[in-house]
Predict the 3D structure of the following.
Amino acid sequence: MAKKKTVVIGFLGTVLDGHGKGSKRWERWRPSVDLCRHDDLQVDRFELLSSQKHYRTAKRVCGDIAEVSPKTTVKVHDAHCDDPWDFVEVYSMLFEFARNYPFDLTKEDYLIHLTTGTHVAQICLFLLTETRYLPGKLLQTGPGRDEGARSPGQWSTIDLDLSKYDQLAKRFKQEHRDDVSLLKSGIQTKNGAFNALIDEVETVAVNSRQPILLSGPTGAGKSQLARQIYTLKQLRQRIPGDFVSVNCATLRGDTAMATLFGHVKGSFTGATTDRPGLLRTADKGLLFLDEVGELGLDEQAMLLQAIEEKRFLPVGADTSVESDFQLICGTNRDLRVAVGEGRFREDLLARINLWSFTLPGLRDRKEDLAPNLDFEVEKNVQRRGTHVQFNKEARAKFLKFAMGPEGKWTGNFRDLGAAVTRMVTLATGGRITVREVEREIARLNQDWQGTKQDPGRDVLALVLSSDAIADIDPFDRVQLAEVVRVCRESRSLSEAGRILFAVSREKRKSTNDADRLGKYLAKFGLSWAQVTEG
Ligand SMILES: Nc1ncnc2c1ncn2[C@@H]1O[C@H](COP(=O)(O)OP(=O)(O)OP(=O)(O)O)[C@@H](O)[C@H]1O
Ligand SMILES: [Mg+2]
């Protein structure tokens, strides 16, 4: 087989290749010319990229190469850039060149000369070589140490395909692993679905500024993950501003708008000073709207505008203000259902759920209980400053319970955290023993009995069908259950009314407790007789 030809692709060095006047030029090191003077490097063809502007230098370099290396063919390509420091322009030009060049890897080897051209050009050449649009090795050249003797200097190649450069790729992988570990607070979780989810969260957190929606049951770790995402973005220089967090369930009534969007002095009673509002405080930072489903419809409309236009109108202001924030929303309810019920704007949901992640509850990742248990113990130890650990039997007993059918974990990490805190506190002598574990199991079992998951259902079941109960918001269910309980303990509607309206009745001129209570019950289709029978 014939020996492969060596083809160099490189820019004309407008400064270095132009050095020296007349015959003096032979005393100076000129990268493109000297590259063709090496005994151990036969350049068969030189693809010289040059702008028309440097026609004379290019012509002289061609002539000099012909003189020092008659076997080298030089082809000059017009590679004009209005601004050779403009990355997009240079990259596009080189990309086009690479796309159109008739590479023939069976007959030719390519060397991409990095020594000439602007730094931007060098970066572009590297990128195109790394991605194999330029299928060659990088070539670097430099002047010899002894300029006087006019050696052609030095040359060396870098083959990015060699395994030693895989080290670079490995570093990126390691970085990804570190990020993922940060998002998981260093806990070595084993659940495949959870790990895959965190993997994707990492990629999105580092590469995207778009809103993220975190959903999942209470205590699954949404708030914690939101904060960790912020920490990661900060660590990777993706976010200069602050982390601003608010639970939308606490934003009620008139002040909700002002809290979020700010207000100007005097815009309503009590507005004695200007207030920036949380959206503006989060400018250049990250806003975490927890329980976003609880946001009122007016606030939702304003929020959508603020996300889309990065501008909004504070309460009482004439001109809008700017804020450029990244957004994470948390929710433990299904927002699609809320949309169906007219409680959540469909357009807002579409905007905030581009990246939507549902955190599984602990019951769906039982294999992660052991690492999380150890993590919680360690957290307590750090907090208390005294050493505590499980004895072997106790740990096994707790895990068996935790991972078995009895382990309901309705409050997820909140339950686990509380359980460990209790055991650590009660442990004497630095050891959690079977005794503490048994007491804790009894306690958790009691906590998880019926009511926690579904407050009020037991009492309501005495007076309403299960279908009727399912039709009532959990919010109302708690209140109605308490009303029913009081009624059933009272002798008359009036007595129950006096107890239930104990505070407000004192402020009224005339009292109508029985009437108020009767109307309240009627809203749920209930009468005094129905509530108290049985
Ligand atoms: N991955 C985790 N590992 C260990 N502990 C965690 C993890 N995630 C959260 N926690 C802890 O569990 C508790 C509840 O977490 P968090 O507040 O993030 O839950 P949440 O999903 O936001 O709950 P809610 O819906 O009630 O707001 C916190 O004390 C938190 O420190
Ligand atoms: Mg939360």
The radius of gyration is 36 Å. The first strand starts at residue 5 and ends at 11.
